[in-house]
Amino acid sequence: MQRIGYLGPKGTFTKMAADAFFEEGSFIGYESIPACLDAVESGDVDLGVVPIENAIEGSVHLTIDYLIHEVNQAVIAELTVPIQQHLLVHPDYDGGGFTHIYSHSQALAQCQQYLYKNYPTAELSYTASTGRAAEIVAEKGIHTAAIGNHLAAEQTGLTILKANIHDYENNHTRFAVVQKTPSPLNAGNHSIQKHKTTIMVTLPKDYVGALHQVLSAFAWRKMNLSKIESRPMKTGLGNYFFLIDVDQPFDDVLFPGVKAELEMLGCKLKLLGTYPSYLMEINSPNS
């Protein structure tokens, strides 16, 4: 039975994504994204599931940077999950307001307008996950609240005070399934939405028009780019790499041509994964 690591504890959206996709396996929760990816790197687990992008707040930079700078792993699948953020309170909550509201930084950001309008004096406290936020509220009592999902409420005995408090209705998060040595993934009965390939491109220094020529290498081959994002190389100001999502699987014709063309410009390329993308359905009592 394969061992599947995820950003824990049990009440996280990552666990919901893993439960929805994998029909069987031994699930192991980790307190942080780095801890989960380190477990994949060391072989403690066979696969890891971590958040990589939210439709409202954008990329999860901790995941991206750790995959680039700290570990050598490939993305082998992408799971897109609808996100419903709820305001969770202790079952003994008396309506007296909150001193602190706990959650992951992404979850708090997704609900910032709601929190500003309804709880402007509450201190917002970051946690490693929404599941951990629920655990803290269960421990600290009635003058605290958490933002999380219905699973977190069930796992910790909290009550959903207000459902669906995220600021924008179309709230989805993409989760990456990663593996140290890529191998075919058993997707069960899940339907593939599309195939994608993610590559990292590092531009040469002091090369005028380099980014334009990088994009042109894809454009004239009619390869659709669904995302391009810059991230610092961490080697000094002004040094960046680019993450590019291409909406097609890696092949033996177009991608080698792109690689050869860009290397002639002095660019460096790294394949981060070629993988199927799945749109998952999550059953929620508040949907």
TrEMBL record:
Coiled coil feature spans: none
Keywords assigned by UniProt, alphabetized: Amino-acid biosynthesis, Aromatic amino acid biosynthesis, Lyase, Phenylalanine biosynthesis
One GO molecular-function entry: prephenate dehydratase activity
Domain Prephenate dehydratase: 3-180
E.C. number: 4.2.1.51
Pathway listed: Amino-acid biosynthesis; L-phenylalanine biosynthesis; phenylpyruvate from prephenate: step 1/1
Signal peptide: none
Enzyme class: lyase
Catalysed reactions, semicolon-separated: prephenate + H(+) = 3-phenylpyruvate + CO2 + H2O
Lineage: superkingdom: Bacteria
ACT domain sequence ranges: 199-276
Cited InterPro entries: ACT-like_dom_sf (IPR045865), ACT_dom (IPR002912), Chor_mutase/pphenate_deHydtase (IPR008242), Preph_deHydtase (IPR001086), Preph_deHydtase_CS (IPR018528)
NCBIfam families, alphabetized: PRK11898.1
The protein's name: Prephenate dehydratase
Organism: Halobacillus amylolyticus
Higher taxonomy: Bacteria, Bacillati, Bacillota, Bacilli, Bacillales
Gene symbol of the encoding locus: pheA
